[in-house]
Specification:
Elements (H helix, E strand, L loop, with lengths): L1 E5 L10 H10 L4 E4 L2 E2 L4 H18 L3 E8 L7 H11 L3 E5 L11 H7 L4 E3 L6 H10 L2 E5 L8 H11 L3 E4 L11 H10 L4 H19 L1
Parallel strand pairs: 1-2, 2-4, 3-4, 4-5, 5-6, 6-7, 7-8
Length: 216
């Protein structure tokens, strides 16, 4: 299992980075991205610390710890600049908090995130056909989320992405150890969403490609 969207106590997660990564390793993960919430107020604080701890963990453990961030509820005009800033600070996976139906995300966030070239658009909610097509052309992965509060639009997203040919990834948006899922659970989730074994493999391959680049 590879998970490219999780949170530690550097934002609203419950665990230290080391604790979350250790739980992921025991769960059978080969890579995990630590993508704490950031905006202009804390991006300079959070990312360097995740870069530091991931470097340390990767010296000792086989699981690849990836420093990243999730740009969250930022003014849409700032998203492109924040994506660039995050990468300059060392984020290897840049996620943007999409237009989930469970939070008052600014309309237009999905488009701005994809246009900015983020790596993953998290829980994009009722994303438009136009934005899915843009994600395909820009190579931005759209997230199937296992987080209950964001997952109600997963089926619609999967149907649209498969029809258009946009990249999909599966992430937990985990905030605690119990949120992490095993490879078997992940496969079951994708099967329930109507993906064939071959389509599910492609989803996992998309995560592997992103993780391989981030871990190199």
């Amino acid at each position: 299992m590879i998970d490219l969207h999780t949170h530690t106590l550097f934002s609203d997660g419950e665990l230290l980075p080391s604790e979350l990564v250790r739980r992921a390793e025991v769960k059978g993960y080969t890579a995990i991205a630590l993508t704490d919430h950031v905006d202009s107020s804390n991006i300079d604080f959070v990312i360097p610390r995740l870069v530091g701890v991931c470097k340390e963990l990767n010296r000792h453990w086989k699981i690849c710890s990836i420093p990243g961030c999730e740009i969250t509820h930022a003014p849409i005009e700032d998203i492109k600049g924040l994506v660039k800033r995050a990468r300059k600070l060392g984020a290897k996976i840049v996620v943007v908090h999409g237009e989930t139906i469970s939070e008052p995300v600014i309309k237009g966030t999905n488009f701005r995130a994809i246009d900015a070239g983020c790596d993953i658009l998290a829980h994009p909610g009722p994303i438009s056909d136009k934005d899915v097509r843009l994600a395909k052309s820009r190579g931005v992965a759209l997230e199937i989320t296992t987080r209950p509060s964001h997952s109600k639009t997963n089926k619609r997203l999967v149907k649209m992405a498969l029809a258009i040919g946009a990249k999909l990834v599966l992430d937990t948006d985990g905030h605690k150890g119990e949120d992490l899922v095993s490879d078997k659970q992940a496969k079951s989730i994708l099967k329930k969403l109507g993906l064939s074994a071959l389509q599910a493999k492609k989803v996992f391959d998309n995560s592997r490609i992103l993780a391989k680049k981030a871990c190199s």
